[in-house]
Amino acid sequence: MFVCGKQSCILTFLEWINYFKMHKDIMYLYLSFLKNKVVN
Q1: CA-CA-CA-CA dihedral for 24, 12, 6, 4, to nearest 10
Q2: What's the domain of life for this entry (predicted)?
Q3: Residue 40: band (very low, low, confident or very high) from pLDDT cuts 50, 70, 90
Q4: Coil vs helix vs strand at 29
């Protein structure tokens, strides 16, 4: 667990957004995989 100030939390959040933008295709594949798993 960690406590963070406003600045670092926002930075981490933006880093996550950038990561998802860079790995959009992987995320879509993963999400559709999860959807199929739930449906079946």
Answers
A1: 140
A2: Bacteria
A3: low
A4: helix
